[in-house]
Amino acid sequence: MFIYMKITDTHTHLYMKQFDKDRDFVIKTAIHNKIHKLYIPSIDSTTIPKILKLEKKYPNICFPMIGLHPSKVTPENLENELNSIKKWLDQHTFISIGEIGIDLHLEKKFILEQRYAFQTQIQYAKIKKLPIVIHCRKAFDPVFDILKKNYPVKGIFHCFSGNLEQAKKIINFGLKIGIGGMITFKNNNISSFLHKINLKNIVLETDSPFLSPYPFKGKRNEPIYLKIILKKLSNIYSISERNIANITETNVKEIFS
C-alpha cells in the first residue's frame, strides 16, 4: 500500500562509512518514498562535522542531534567530549541531545563514567530545552535510576528491546518508544505485547545502517525500510498503514516541537 502521509525516520546514522558509496541515492530514495525527515544522532565529536555536512546539503530533511554515545565513553575522553558538546550547543542548533545513555553489553568497566556522561547530557538538554534520545542496552535499571532523578524528561527511548513493564515505565517518564527493525524478527518478544501500548507513545526508526528488518536482516539497513516497520505495526495494531503514519508523525511533532 502506498503511503500518502509523510513519515520520519527518527534515528539513522547516514554519515557512517556503510553509506559512502551511495549516500545521496539512499537519501533521495527515502525522500521519493515520502520519508521526508531524517533525524541523525551523533556518537562522539568526530561525527558532528559529518552530520552538519548532511544538514547543509539536505536542509529541512537531515536534522542533527548531538551527544556522546555510551560505547564511546572512556575516562580519558570524557571531559573533552562533554566540553565539545557544550561548545557546539552554543554555536549551532540541534534538534535533540542524542544518542546518550548506558550500555552494559560491551563497556561494563566504565559504568561510572557512562552514568556521569548520561546525567550531564540530560542537564544540557534541560538547559537548552531539547529532547533526549536514549540508548539503553542491558542497562534498564541504571538508566531508569537516572531518569527518575531527572523527571520529567522528553524524548525517545531508542531501539526499545524490553518488556511491557519496562515500556510502561518509559512512558511514565514522559518518553516515546522507538520501534525499528527488531519488531520484524521471528524471535522478538515485543510483538506479543506491543498492541497493549497506545500508539500515541510510539515513533518509527531504522537505526540504519544497523538492525535491518526482515527479510533484509544481516544486510545494510537504510531509511526506505521504514515502510517495512510501518507495515508490521499495521498488522500488530490492526489499523491501516496510513493511520499508523499519521499517529506516529504526530508523536514526532509532539517531541520535537
TrEMBL record:
GO terms for molecular function: DNA nuclease activity; hydrolase activity, acting on ester bonds; metal ion binding. Pfam families: TatD_DNase. The keyword Lipid metabolism does not apply. Transmembrane segments: none annotated. Keywords: Hydrolase, Metal-binding. InterPro entries: DNase_TatD-rel_CS (IPR018228), Metal_Hydrolase (IPR032466), TatD-like (IPR001130), TatD/YcfH-like (IPR015991). It comes from the Bacteria. A divalent metal cation 2 binds at residues 135, 158. The keyword rRNA-binding does not apply. CDD domains: TatD_DNAse. A divalent metal cation 1 binds at residues 11, 13, 99, 207. GO terms for cellular component: cytosol. Belongs to the metallo-dependent hydrolases superfamily. TatD-type hydrolase family. PANTHER family: D-AMINOACYL-TRNA DEACYLASE, HYDROLASE TATD. This is TatD-related desoxyribonuclease. It comes from Blattabacterium punctulatus CPU2. The gene is tatD.
